[in-house]
């Protein structure tokens, strides 16, 4: 399995700051926002990553991640010249995806919860066995803002509606999707919505109509932040800060994950920590390496 992470767009909901800085590079507490979705892919053991980025932001992402070899990974980039909808990223990633399954992530979505990776691993195994697609639902109080799932009396999903005026449930589809390779052709086949965009909901709807869409619901023990607004951006930072202060453990620390996955060794971890040694982040990495002596 490979992973495609959407990190383009104009970030208008976070203006004026995003007029000069890509929102995915803004800090959620002590690390760039983009670290959090990347960490999800890494925790699933995915080493091949494609970032979809704006042309003007490409140098910044390359400076941050290079080719990923320092993390034992392969990281590449694809330019999105204009934000034409979330589903367009699948088309842009066609060559990268090839015949592989893909974890498709929105760069401004942050997830946390005990057992989160277990849920994702199960979904990944089901995808490998049965194909199709899997999406994840989360209960929200403002369903008008999201793609919303509708269920029948048995709990089976019967529809997905994008930003409904009259929501049929409170379960939103979060910005994390598992697809088989057919997703690329499906994305090519859909038509732009009334907003003029290729909607990811339209892709999911096709899978649903084919009887190939599975849904897993995140319960109360999970946290999900769509950090694309000022309030949710602030909430996400406060949440991460609280967890890290209480536990002494970091969320979304990509160097730690690479080390624990066995993709880099202790000396490589210390090398990565060297230029960060005056920061709490660097000290955390050094402590991690010392514990592994």
UniProtKB/TrEMBL annotation:
InterPro entries: G1P_thy_trans_s, NTP_transferase_dom, Nucleotide-diphossugar_trans. The keyword Transferase applies. Its EC number is 2.7.7.24. Its cofactor is Mg(2+). Transmembrane segments: none annotated. The keyword Nucleotidyltransferase applies. GO terms for molecular function: glucose-1-phosphate thymidylyltransferase activity; metal ion binding. Residues 2-241 form the Nucleotidyl transferase domain. It is an enzyme of class 2 (transferase). This is Glucose-1-phosphate thymidylyltransferase.
């Amino acid at each position: 399995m490979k992973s495609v992470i959407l990190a383009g767009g104009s970030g208008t909901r976070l203006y004026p700051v995003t007029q000069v800085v890509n929102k995915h590079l803004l800090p959620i507490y002590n690390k760039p926002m983009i670290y959090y979705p990347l960490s999800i892919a890494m925790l699933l053991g995915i080493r091949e990553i494609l970032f979809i980025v704006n042309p003007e932001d490409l140098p910044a992402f390359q400076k941050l991640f290079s080719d990923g070899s320092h993390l034992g990974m392969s990281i590449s980039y694809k330019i999105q010249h204009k934000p034409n909808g979330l589903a367009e990223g699948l088309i842009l990633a066609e060559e990268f995806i090839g015949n592989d399954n893909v974890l498709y992530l929105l760069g401004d979505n942050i997830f946390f919860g005990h057992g989160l990776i277990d849920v994702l691993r199960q979904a990944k195994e089901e995808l490998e066995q049965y194909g199709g697609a899997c999406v994840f639902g989360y209960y929200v109080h403002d369903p008008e803002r999201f793609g919303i799932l509708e269920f029948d009396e048995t709990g089976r999903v019967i529809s997905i509606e994008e930003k409904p005026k009259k929501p049929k449930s409170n379960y939103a589809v979060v910005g994390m999707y598992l697809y088989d390779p057919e997703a690329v052709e499906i994305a090519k086949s859909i038509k732009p919505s009334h907003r003029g965009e290729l909607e990811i909901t339209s892709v999911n709807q096709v899978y649903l109509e084919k009887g190939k869409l599975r849904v897993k619901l995140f319960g109360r023990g999970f946290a999900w932040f769509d950090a694309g607004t000022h309030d949710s951006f602030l909430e996400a930072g406060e949440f991460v800060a609280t967890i890290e202060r209480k536990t002494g453990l970091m969320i979304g620390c990509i160097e730690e994950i690479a080390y624990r996955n066995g993709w880099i060794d202790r000396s490589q971890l210390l090398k990565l920590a060297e230029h960060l040694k005056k920061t709490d982040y660097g000290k955390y990495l050094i402590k991690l390496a010392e514990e592994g002596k």
